[in-house]
């Protein structure tokens, strides 16, 4: 009896041990599965993270390239503006030596021939004696100074272009302006015609005195001297009185520099588009949504 009880207790203990062992094996198996899943998930996430880091590094490199390109482009434009500023200052100094005071607008590249330099009577486009004399002086100064700032020039019937000139004059606009007295009822048609006539008459006088100016060319082999008219749309004095009207009846010389920025900007745009694609790829490999 005692033996049977002992055997029974032993069997119960053994059964209990087997149950615990099975349970521990089961738990261990579950832990092993979880560990495998964790390891696989960690490896996957690590691979994703490594991939994302690689993409991020590539984006950082391209951002650095973009910053360098933009910085170089800004420096190039700054040098072009400095060249134009030097041109304007030289013209102003030369004209001052000839007894003419003019104004310059560095930001817009304008040499302003004030009423004291070139005066037009109201509703008139003819250059009067003193105005004609001053335009002749301006023509001779332009003839002396501008050739150093252009890319090409017609010499003895041949177009000769200089090399190594980073920025040059693309166009010189002879701009005609009027006062607002001819714009009745909002109809400014007369002033448009008048402003163009003033610019054309000034142009004709300039190239008559300095015909070599017509031989100055930009990189497209186009004459740099040109005309434009703005009617009363660009006053320098917005007041409506005789003094303001006299100021606004004027000629401006606007110097436009020739910068080959189109191709440069295309390259920058292409680089930004590439970076956009790289950023989208980074979002994708990181598990995000586009």
Question: What key phrases describe this protein's structure?
Answer:
transmembrane, Flagellar motor protein MotB, 8 strands, 290 residues, membrane, 60s Ribosomal Protein L30, Chain: A, alpha+beta, disordered N terminus, 57% helix, single chain, five-stranded mixed sheet, 13% strand, OmpA-like, three-stranded antiparallel sheet, elongated
Helical run tally? 5
Shape, principal axes of CA atoms:
elongated
If you compute it from the alpha carbons, what radius of gyration comes out, rounded to the nearest whole angstrom? 40 Å
Q: Which architecture of the domain at 98-259 would the CATH scheme give at its second level? A: 2-Layer Sandwich
The separation of the N and C termini measures: 79 Å
In this structure, how is the largest beta sheet organized?
5 strands, mixed
Low-pLDDT runs: 1-18
Structure description:
The chain has 290 residues and is α+β, with helices and mostly antiparallel strands. It is elongated and about 80 Å long. The chain has helices at residues 2-97, 129-145, 189-209, 242-248, 261-285, and strands at residues 103-105, 110-113, 152-155, 158-161, 168-176, 216-217, 225-229, 251-258. 57% of the residues lie in helices and 13% in strands. The longest helix is centred in the N-terminal third of the chain and has 96 residues, at 2-97. The chain has a domain at 98-259: OmpA-like domain (60s Ribosomal Protein L30, Chain: A, 2-Layer Sandwich), CATH 3.30.1330.
